[in-house]
Amino acid sequence: MTAFTEAESRVQAALAEAGLGTQVRILETSAHTARDAAAAIGVALGQIVKSLVFRGAETGRPYLLLVSGANRVHEKRAGRRIGETLARADADFVKTATGFSIGGVAPLAATGELSTYIDETLFAFDEIWAAAGHPRSVFPTTAAELAQLTGATRLDVT
To answer: Is 74 left (phi over 0), alpha (psi -120 to 50) or beta?
Structure first.
């Protein structure tokens, strides 16, 4: 078995601390994109959670949007609903805000404070899969569990 990276270990510890029986799973192929993850796991694209980090245009505050792999974020509309214009975050901002690199951003165990929102369409699935700190790792959960774990606010992101 491949050893966990520091980031994967943080995610596994957060799952265990929450009392969830789920485990971080290492995939044989990269799950760098939602399509890659869906293919590697054998689930629908919509069941993949994209953890997208945006920067507040006025405050510089990091926002984490947990989005169904089948959806694109309508940034202007989502920003209006959140209450701040959203700007795209570069790789350095993402790493500083979360402790994760793009492609493996987990929805929990971030090293910084994030305002988190979850795509309402994820609640249509009995099981969803999220990144676990590295492009090769994922974990299964439900939208309700993920919202509770992250303190996420439900949001229509499209």
So the answer is: beta
Structure tokens at 105: 């951003």
Q: Which domains does the chain have, with CATH numbers?
A: 6-155 (3.90.960.10)
Asked whether 24 and 13 are in contact (CB, 8 A), the reply is: no
Give the C-alpha separation, 51 to 62, whole Å. 12
Under DSSP, the state recorded for 2 is P
Nearest to 113 by CA among 103, 99, 133, 132: 99
Q: pTM for the whole thing?
A: 0.95
CA gap 66, 140 in Å, rounded: 14
pLDDT tens across 77-128, in order?
Answer: 999 999 999 999 999 999 999 999 999 999 999 999 999 999 999 999 999 9
